[in-house]
Amino acid sequence: MADHTPPLESGQLLSPDLSLLTSPPPPPSMVNGDGAQQVILVQVNPGEAFTIQREDGQFQCITGPAQVPMMSPNGSVPPIYVPPGYVQQIIEENGVRRVLVLPQAEFHPGGHSPLHHPPPPPPHAHLQAFIPHPHHPIMPPPHLYSGMAGSTGDMNAQYISQYHPAHIYSEQVSSDTHPPHGRTPFVHRDERANKTYERLQKKLKERQGGQAGGGGSLVPSKDSPPLSPQKSRGTPPAGGDLQNGLGYKGVEEQCQASATVTGLGTECPGRERDVEPGELNEKTQALQEWLNNMGKPVVMDIQARGASLGWVAPVRTVADEEQKEGEEKSEDPSFSYEVSVSYSGKDGKYNTAYSGKELSATIEDLRPATDYHVRVQAMYNCLHGNPSEPVSFTTLSCEPDTPSPPRKASGTKSSLVLQWKAPCDNGSKIQNYILQWDEGKGTGVFEQCYYGPQKQYRVTKLSPATKYSFRLAAKNDMGVSEFSEPVDMMTSCSVPAPPLRPELIQAGVTWLCLQWNRPVGSPKEDDIGYVLEMEEEGSGYGFQPSYDGDEVSCTVRNLHRSTKYKFRVAAYNAEGKSNPSPMSEFTTAPDRPSCPCKPSIKGKPHPTSFRMTWDPPKDNGGSDVTEYVVELSEGLSGSSWEQVYRGSAMECVCDGLKPGWSYQARVYCLSEGGQSPMSETLQVQMPAVPPGPCQQPRVVGKPKAREIQLRWAPPQVDGGSVVCSYSVEVFAPQAEEGKEVYQGPELDCTVCGLLPGRTYGFRLRAANKAGYGPSSERTEVTTGPGAPEACQPPHIVCKSPSCAVVSWEAPPCNGAAVTEYRLEWGAAEGSMQVCYTGSGMSHELKGLLPATNYFCRVQAGNVAGVGPFSDVVLCQTPCSVPAAVSSVHALRESEMQVEDRSSDREEEEEEGEDEGDGPSPLLYSPSTCLGLRWEAPCDHGAEITSYLIDIGERQPILTGPVTKYIIQNLQPDTSYRIRIQALNSLGAGPFSHTFKLKTKPLPPLPPRLECTAFSHQTLRLKWGEGPAKSTPTDSLQYHLQMEDKNGRFVSLYKGPCHTHKVQRLNESTSYTFRIQAFNEAGEGPFSSVYTFTTPRSPPAPLKAPRVERLDESCEISWEALPPMKGDPVIYCLQCMQGNSEFKQIYKGSATVFQLANLSSSAEYRFRVCAIRQCQDAPEIIGPYSSTITLLPPRIETPASSSSMGPKTAEALRPRRSLTDEQFSFLIIALLAVTSILIAVAIQYFVIE
Predict the structure, then answer these.
(1) CA–CA separation, 683 vs 665, rounded Å?
(2) What topology in the membrane does the UniProt record assign (predicted)?
């Protein structure tokens, strides 16, 4: 809370020149006093200002938070001005009365009665000093009003004030009355103010008209805020010199031209195009820093739906100017600017509103009474500067939006009730509505029929059945909206007369189309409806409504066929219903009959005729069947039908048909209702006869040795059915009985299984559904010679593991001598290849693999062809020495583990690796060992028992049947030639190819570890010789580890540096470290363990002590600190009198000390510090607090005190020294002012 102002007389608050604010004031608190006078406390909330007028006529502004005490001479509560739409309410809590200003819809009467509701005071009322000046209309703080019944802290969002401060122009308000906080008070517009306002608006329009070439209309985007002026107010503008943009001539002089904004629909581009500063050269970095030096824009003119902005080009930094002193001055680059606007708060989403090279812009198509934030970003080519700090402004209120047309709620012959909805008020509450009508004349000339705040109105004394046009407009403090679209409404008429009887237009089977005429004497403007009633003959239900509407015709559906119906019609309007018309009778038409039942065959069909019969239809459609019609179709396609019978009988005979053919028959009937649908189709298959004899089969091509191909033609007579099968019989030489060799539908066949060079006889017969016909005459055919028979399986004899001899016997020649043999050989049965062709009876194979399975078969051939292959024979070659080792690889260092451990130790290590706590496995040194891995070669049938490793001049190494081996006891940094040979029980195989391997040099030794600096939370360690930060090219690196609470060493640092700072340690604690060096040769051994201990921590600094003067002594108190890890904390208080040195006046555990015998003319300064008393170590003294000053008291005489004014009385009050936060803020403010002055000087003297 700020310092309180001394109580002032209410007479000092008279301010005839100070205007009232339009926003509601926060509730002032009134404290009850004794006697005739009362002290009134005016609560000034944070962000608000309170203006009073002193005795000398000057104005004094008090900024919140503060409480201003004022004296009421007569002890009564002064009248409080309540803005339009608000009421006041008094609440009393704990003897304190509070006056709350609430919206009218939020006022809760009952518990407390209002004081009074005075009208708005005259322009020169004395009440202006009681109304604080907020920076922006905000709700009262929740912490101040949360405990009050019906307070503004309980307001909903729709009750937030919609009144906004108006503009203050330089011609209207002097600089003396201008508040320093940047928010201008409301000015009551008299005739002079209105003329000034109109003149300024005219100038602004002329200026915008001259710059209209650079802009267009603004189209709100889909993300625009809703059309409601009830917004939560954001942060006020930060600059103290911002006066809503008007009267700011300095910026207007710098602006070259202005541009009109075309829209807010484009979003501000992101920072994806920005280049990292580390990747730019020096010139580009300087230009980037120049772009980042963009100042915030200035709002120069604010309207209800637009605002004008101006800004200054970015300013170069001091470093850039010094760098350019010795160089030639180049022309400044031409910057472009991008203006972005946010309607969702300072940190909300910004949309691009302007992009160009001008230093000013006009934003159009904004929403009235809405908070906006605007910022500017400078750009040059592909470089984008940082956006400036956003500046907030609030658009002005204006007239309401155009309302929707009124609607008709109800009506009679002589009255209409109209209702409408309230449009958006655009920041000013709607006070009245204007309803106009054309008085039923239809000329388009409207007259006012209602003016008031209600949302409905009854228009009376109207004419029946007359059309009237209405339109609506809304009015608030800012003006009248446009009228809505005219809407037509009609009054009611009298009950209509009965219409004439309905007439039949057309009759159907299930429907009747009727029509009727409008009642005689009914006006055309009258909305008449009709009710058609129907009665079915014999139903017994009477007349039932079947249609209700305004048409004069109707089609009644879902009726019964051949049924009589009665109809009558009645007319009605808004006044009532007429009597029904005379009755009319109409009958529906009969329906066609249903289809006859499916026909059936009577008796057994003959090859050329059949008899069919059928039943009558189940539904005759309301009339008798007169005749039946039978249609017949040849085939199953049903493409063409022929009428074969017409008459009243229900059976007929169909003759003259073809045997074996298929026919379809169907029936339909005729009656008065029409023709019935076709019946289901009857399919009839006529009986067939066996086919006639076939011609002799003929031979196709040259007869083969064991098969003959025959072909024939179908018989000429098929017997009325398709031939479905043929049968071929073969007769052996000198045989009387034949054998069937083929039966099927094809017209050719191949007869197999014949002997070469023999004569055979063949005959053929055909068959259909009726059976087989007679056989054809016999055909004689002689077969040709054949190929030899299959050979017997060959015999195989292995001479060696790589050589075998195959022999075979001659097969039966089958009538022709064998001319050649073919031998196939292969390692797989399915992939054998021909390895011999000739007339010999044996063949020798060489180059075979030992201990391998082989397959072979033989085939014979003569002039007639090649015979079949013999059976496949399997052969396995004997075993041999192993093959050469083909693939050899060197092991990586991580794979060179020591394997000569016990199985228990290996199991423990595996468990430790699974848990993550086991030690790393021991590895062979790559400096003295070489690891080899190879793939096992083919053993050639005998298992490999060992390997022989030849390493040049050294003794060869014999290993077991393994594929990995580590050669030990080698020289570091030495090359070796190595080759490997496999051995089995049959001997040694060939050596592998020779390859070179080299051992690595020895790893480095660990350095010495030292502690160069320490504190209670950190330790700085150093090792080795070299700079603290090494280059990345250093091959030697270090690994520093520290032991944790579980006794494990954890890694702290790994790299080429020689120092490391260990942080976040505990005080007075010992820590254990070890270090290891490693390079390309590998990791060296760890050093011995080093132990370092952190010291104890000093006490924390104390805040400045508090001093209170007591007559001739003073009491000094300070905050207490808790014990530090069991060590008690005492305090040392020092005092300095005048300009002498600080002296200790107290040392102990207390936090309060009284200093007596103070000098009345001396100035005292105090400071205090905490001291930690360690049990086994000397005391640790903490830093001293900031000093507090005690000033000597001033003696005042009663006469002088009464004659001095409030300014002198305020100066005599004891001053308080600045706190640390206030002093830091003061230093920052001075530095900021100095930087701005230097930048302005550089801009003026260097750049320009």
Answers:
(1) 7
(2) Single-pass membrane protein
d(CA 701, CA 492) in angstroms, rounded, equals 107
Class of domain 429-490: mainly beta
Q: Which CATH class is domain 1008-1025+1036-1094?
A: mainly beta
From the CA atom positions of the chain, what is the Rg in Å? 59
pLDDT at 222: 36
pLDDT tens per residue across span 1023-1078: 987 665 655 555 789 999 999 989 899 999 999 999 999 998 888 889 999 999 98
CB of 1095 within 8 A of CB of 1084? no
Tokens of 332: 């400044």
Distance CA 1123, CA 1101 (A): 14
CATH of domain 795-876: 2.60.40.10
Q: Which amino acid is at 925?
A: S
Q: Half-sphere exposure of residue 1, counting CA atoms within 13 Å on the CB side? A: 8
Question: From CA 877, how far away is CA 851, in angstroms rounded?
Answer: 5
User: Which segments in the chain show pLDDT lower than 70?
Assistant: 1-39, 47, 49, 54-58, 70-197, 203-280, 317-332, 525, 815, 899-921, 1026-1034, 1195-1219, 1248
Q: Which residue has the tokens 């074996």?
A: 660
Q: Indicate if the alpha-carbon torsion angle 396, 397, 398, 400 is positive or negative.
A: positive
As annotated, the residues of the chain forming the CATH 2.60.40.10 domain(s) are: 286-309+334-394, 429-490, 503-587, 606-630+652-682, 698-776, 795-876, 1008-1025+1036-1094, 1106-1190
Q: How far is CA 190 from CA 19, 123, 193, 478, 883, in A?
A: 12, 10, 5, 15, 118
Residue 598 tokens, joined: 């499916």
Residues 606-630+652-682: name the CATH superfamily.
Answer: Immunoglobulins (2.60.40.10)
According to CATH, the topology of domain 503-587 is Immunoglobulin-like (2.60.40)
One CATH from 2.60.40.10, 3.20.170.30, 3.40.50.300, 3.30.1050.10 for 698-776: 2.60.40.10
Q: Is 311 helix (H, G, I), strand (E, B) or coil?
A: coil
State the CATH class of domain 286-309+334-394.
Answer: mainly beta
Residue length, the chain?
1248
Structural contact between residues 67 and 41, judged by C-beta atoms closer than 8 angstroms: yes
Residue 15: the pLDDT is 34
Q: In the prediction, which pLDDT does 268 show?
A: 36
How does DSSP assign 872-917, residue by residue? -EEEEPPP-PPPPP--EEEPPGGG-B---S-HHHHHHHHHHHHHT-
Give per-residue pLDDT as tens, 778-830. 888 888 888 888 899 999 998 888 899 999 998 888 767 888 999 999 988 88
Written as one letter, the residue type at 944 is I
Beta strands in 1063-1192 (DSSP E): 1070-1079, 1082-1086, 1090-1093, 1106-1110, 1113-1117, 1129-1137, 1143-1148, 1152-1155, 1164-1172, 1180-1181, 1188-1190
Residue found under tokens 């060079």: 757
Sign of CA dihedral 548, 549, 554, 555: negative
Domain 1106-1190: give its CATH architecture.
Sandwich (2.60)
CA 401 to chain centre: 36
For tokens 């600080």, name the residue. 1142
Q: Give which of 302, 305, 389, 314 is closest to 359, Cα–Cα.
A: 314
Give the 3-state secondary structure of residue 325: coil
Closest residue by Cα to residue 1239 from 277, 313, 168, 447: 313
Give me the amino acid identity at 769: K
Amino acid at 153: G
Cα atoms in the 13 Å half-sphere on the side-chain side of 108 = 10
Q: What is the DSSP letter of 830?
A: G
Q: Supply φ then ψ for residue 1244, to 5 degrees.
A: -80, -45
d(CA 94, CA 307): 49
